[in-house]
## 1
Amino acid sequence: MIHTEALNLHVDGFGRLVATLPDGTTRAGLVPVRCFPLADPERWVSLCDAEGREAMLLEDPSALDSESRRVLLDELARREFVPKIGRIVRIAGDAEPTLWEVETDRGPVSFTLPTEDHIRPLRPHGALVADSHGVRYRVEDRRKLDAHSRRLLEQYM
Amino acid sequence: MPPTRPRIERFSPLAAAPAPTYTGAAPCAPGSMPNEPPSPLLEAADALRRPVESRLRPGESIRACFQPDLDDALRYREGLVVLTDARLLAVAGPDAVREWPLSEVVSLRAADRGGLGWLEAHGASGRLCAWSFTVVRAGRARAFVDAFGRQRDGAAPETVREEAEVPEAEAHEPPAKIGLLLRLMRFARPHLGHVALGIALTLGTTAAGTIPPYLTWPLVDDVLAPYQNRVRDIREDATLDAPRREARLADAREQARAPFSRVPLFLVLMLLSALATWALGWAQGWVLARLSERVSADLRNTTYEHLHRMSLEYFSTKRTGDLVSRISSDTDRINNFLSDTLLDFITDVLMIVASGAMLFYMDPWLAGATLVTFPAVAWLTLYMRNRLSTGFLHGSRAWAEMTSILADTIPGVRVVKAFAQERRESQRFRQANDRIVALNDRVNRLWTFFWPMVALVNQLGVLVAWALGAWRVYDQHITVGVLTAFLAYIARFYGRLESMTRMAGSTQRAAASAQRIFEILDRAPGVPEPAHPVAPGRVRGEIDIRRASFRFGHRQVLDDVSLSIRPGEMIGLVGPTGAGKSTLLNLVCRFYDVSDGAVLVDGTDVRSFPVSDYRRNIGIVLQEPFLFYGTIAENIAYGRPEATRAEIVEAAKAARAHEFILQLPEGYDSIVGERGQTLSGGERQRISIARALIVDPRILILDEATSSVDTQTERQIQEALDNLVRGRTTIAIAHRLSTLRGADRLVVLEHGRVAETGTHDDLLARGGVYARLWQAQQKAPEGQGDASPVPRMSA
């Protein structure tokens, strides 16, 4: 068991995430993965090597020193791509699959929704939409969407 | 800053099928001028293309291009990375161009995870640049990396990626753009005679129902009213004394005998029309109920048949309970709608038209004035219709949610009981039910407010008719008889209107159900039939997998796998869990289609064969053999129902199942499957081997056929399998490597790629992945049956 406080994280010249353990040994090329990206995104971050084997598991990343924490959060932000849907412009197609045109925090985009089962409601008021390529989009709070978007989304939930 | 370009996918109903998409790196004709087609640069926007074109040196040629669709902040924005024979160029905007001579670029890497991909260029002392893209472009990124590898190794650039001609798939008709309920008409077409009869009877019923009020008019005006007036005149005549008045009244009675003699005629006519309405209504109800029963049965059959044309992928994304509820309860709702509501609706419309016509015929002025409330009701109905349809759709979904819980927990009841979670499952069911109640409450609230509202508006209409009618009588425009008949019609008119608005509920419910049915029917089959089918006949069993890739969601399950199998050869597929072994089998069986590349059998792309003709050549034995409810004989003959008893017994003997079947009280006639005879795993497995044997397949698929049984049983199954394998092209997956020793060749898969190929001895000598796996299994103690701690390589 490694004490999180004693762990140092930095990014080397090759853009690889490197962890330095208290005994001075280093592990390079680590990929941070959230274990519970929906239920508990802030805690339980696993650092895996390129083959997907876990090198270490950080139960509470907030215990890292501030610089390491910043590096970790940057790296997570770089590895995660779940655009947040702010508005649903329109949904084309009466039958599945349907074509969605949405505005997200990453810009406007269209995607194909294979079936209504690809929309997963998230408690309490969110939703996770997976398109035909497996790219996921998130609705943080359905109640905060405008009426038009909400009506379109509710048809599928 | 150029405007952000959204990623627009061309929408087609075929998009759900793993349609062969072009994922290769854009092919570059070497030496071609950049502005000359088919330059890959043409795909890029002007703003990105120009900076590259202007920077190209004379004689420099483009080898490959890649367009990342995300910028550094992971916002959607097109970029461009270009590989020439001398440089690597990256364009983010008209003035944001970076370039590196190829001598500086040591390596190029692409990877993706969770929908996001990244491409990195590394130099000797650090990372030069990194680009991000969505997983949609992952295939192109990998191809770009491959192109870089070839360029660095000095290999000739692959001018045109070897791409097998993808057989054209049968077109799936896009759904018609008409109302959902109108689309049900398609299912009424085979019963046109019934439909015509139903409509004729409805017209007759309506006509018969319109007669009685019309008869009240002469009854009042010619018979009752004149007599009543005379009687009143005599009674109120002050000049008459009592005896004379009595005499005059008797006179009047005498004189009225003639007009009153017509009363029985009116009554008989009314009785006749009532009888006609009854008889016609009966016939009409019967005809339409028969019709709707057949239409909804057709609907169920068509939907179920269509469901069987879907790929496995569809079933893996749909919940069983949801599909069950669509086919059972949604079709039933449509049935109810067709038999009851539609009938009433047509009758009501006809009645409204007929009554309206009568009203205008009797007194256009009064009719026009009293019908002013009609538009209000029509608008109210229309408004409610939309609100209700959403409500009912949600209701149907909640219902499906509930059936899904049933479909989930009833087969899993052993787990529920083992973990003592009955209470929690009941709670889960209760919650789903509560949701149905809550959603229905919402609809009902709307609904119950609506129809009394309509009733009120209609009452107002009748009130207006009374007021204006009284005035018209006073004004001597119409007689009391006309007013009586008029009021009878207007009551009927509004009554019908009210019942019609009440129907809006069941109509919308049926429309919601129709939508859920058509969601299945409109879906293009995941494994489409070929447009120009090639009959496979009985194949020789030569399998050629060419650069096959398969993506499931955002996971690249198979990546550029090539494998040639000779007819009659046995291949053992080995590799850790998730290496893509089962997926490769599914591609050969054509349960899925490749994302890229091709699977050829006897030199023909499997996508050219009609699906079921091709599958007739394949026999499958799965890890968990599924037996259907029925006798053992029926289960063995499942793939060839016409098989004789002799063939069934022969297959069972070859599968080493004959003896244990004879031990069962009813022998081959024993019922197995759900609610049937309990068989052990090994016994079920041997029945499934017999099932595969009887179709005499050319290609045999064994997916962990022996992994769920103990070693003793495995030996028996192995004997059965040896009979099965003989002379057939076989692909087998097994976690016990010892069971694959009969294989001609072993193929080791790792991370979706072929890691090693060779015989058992070759691979052991090589000391690679296979040798490690083999040694790990040899160290573990053997012969302890099911519970032996043999390291399982696959689940």
## 2
Amino acid sequence: MITILAAGVSAELVSFLEHRLSGASVKLVRTGHEALEALAQSGWQLLVVDQYLTDPPAVDVLAAMRELPASELLPVIYCLDEHASSELQTKLVKELGVEQLCYHPLDREELARYASIWLKLSLRAQPEERNQEQEAILAAVAGLWPRFEGATLERIELVEQAISALLEGELSDELRRKAEWESHKLAGSVGSFGFKEASRIAAEIERSFRAKASIGQGQALALSELAATLRRELESRPAGRLKDGLAPSNDSGPVLLIVDSDQKFAQLLADEAGARDVRAEVANDASRARQSLGRCSPDVVILDLSLPQESGNGLRLLEELGARHPPVSSLILAASDSLIDRVEVARRGSKYFLQKPLPPSEIIDAVMQLLKGRSARESKILAVDDDPLVLAALRALLEPRGMRVITLDEPLRFWEVLEHTMPNLILLDVDMPHLSGIELCRVVRNDPRWFGIPTLFLTAHRDAETIERVFAAGADDFVCKPIVGLELLTRITNKLEHARLYRTFVETDPLTGVANRRKSTTMLNQLIRLASRLHQPLSFVMLDLDHFKQVNDQYGHAVGDQVLRRLGAFMSKAFRSEDVVARWGGEEFTIGLFGMASQDAVRRMTRVLEAFRQETFTTSAGAEFHVTFSAGVAQYPEDGIELQSLYRAADKALYQAKKGGRNRVHVTEYRSQQLLEKQYA
Amino acid sequence: MTIRRILIVDDEDDIREVAQVSLEMVAGWEVSTANCGSAGLKMASADPPDAILMDVMMPDMDGPATFQKLQADPAIRHIPVILLTAKLQPADRRRFAELGVAGVLAKPFDPLQLASQVTEVLHWAR
């Protein structure tokens, strides 16, 4: 009989654990004193203790326990409040040897699961074996559903209306607020009827509407797909399905599994991940890792190669990860930089090979990259060829690999389809009626939104002249017809991967995820050229966080980094895909707004400022604060015809904004003068 | 503390009904319901329950505002209040906790677990 000591938890939890863990008996003690008395005897296999234990308090009990020969190695599950300081949590794990932290309000199932893992016990009463009483309750709840189905579908209809309005570019503020409300309500209610997935989707839709920034076309299309899925989920279900998987959860964030025998380091990694809103689980050896994998499906796994041998080595675990469906992205930590190791690891499909020692923040940076890549929508390929047989062959080749293929046999509709579908890669035939692929390629390279997109040609021509024309038009690669499947596939996947990596490493600011200065300079120059050719205005904004030095001084650089990260995320969502958002350095950002005159830009920036002001930042100590920024707006060509002069003008306007009290957006003097004159004209 | 009577305040019919069925059948509690903050306050004054389960996002008067009105009334301020919300960012949780409510529970809730979660929260809200 396995014996568990429970100190300071509720009697109800005790009876739950006894019920769920087959072969375990649980003894409850109510004070720290009683706990220590019990712990002086040997025979306990697990201690479950709550933060609220008193007389003496839980932390003291644990410290004393580690001095008792009978219990010094006893595994501990510690229940505590979420708001507990990270100092306490670190101390519990690192100094007092707590194996697992569980947060209030306690998820009894999860606690029972942890206990079952440490004790190697099986769990009784698996979900399918619900007892009669539970069945009756579920049946009663299922019986309620038909009465509320109608009202629920009406909520969805309103959300769908908002999305249609959005696609037409006519979403009013009121409709948007309504859609946010309705999707919030959906997220909070349908889960109780057993619609776990629908609840998650509704929450995602709510987040989009809540974002307070304009929703781009691509995102609007994604929303409409989500709404369709939501409707399908809620319409298709027979009442009986309430019985399987009734465990709605608000936790739809990414999950990281850390497999490292260095408990302290693993916890540091977990803390760093937690600070970035990534849930982390820790396993100290391969068998615990496998147990963890059995319970949840992590998105990314950090695996330290030097795991203790007896539980199966790291490489085998890595193989297992690759064989899972869907495969899990892995990041390897190695103590030495051996080529053999790198090869072995790469062969098994790992994404990154990092050599210890490395600061946790860098390792988690890499994890964030992996997560970003994973959540990127599946690859979409636009294939243009007048020969339907070729299009069919492309479909047959690429779709089984998980790539979505949009085919087009009429080149004249190219632009409309491109805008509507937003692919990641384009395949073009050279010879087509009306418009050749070469002309299409030139058109693509001319547009600020698309000029970077990987473009491959398929052609039966092998002559040097055609090849030259193809590359001169801006193609990335060409493949000869008849298509050799494997070759095309490899070239496509390589191009997609390179494009993504390039964008990530060479062009992106690692902290915030927006373009870096170098990339944005290129893009802004391109935008200026385009604005000139098409006689369009262009607004250039310089943005600087207010009192940022104080944030760093007062709360530390880790918090300052979080502020920057959040601002970066905010800005990426707040602007259209043709706008250029970049981190120019430190706490300075720039935005290039194509086709927008400065008045509109000022309005837009003011709205973004108002929204950003409302973001709450919290430090680990629980302090809350808000951040504002100041911005200066310049316009092309009035304030300058090249980037340097636009930059200087916007900078001056930014200075005025700061002088004027910060937390505001200023336009250049020249423009404000012009606008004044217009008013009085 | 033993709970015998609980008041549920939520503007949504389906939430009220599922919560009611769940708490009545699982815990055997006497459940009364109100569809808005003001009705909830009236009912709590007229017939004080042992605890109140209250939605955050309600039109007119939201959960936190209702809670503050409750705190202002000496006759009913002692009643522990648990907020129900689908917004569960740590910042939101902290904000609610600072109001002085007994606890916060996540929506959507599992009808099989609601009663024990409520009990758990109230157990620690001394």
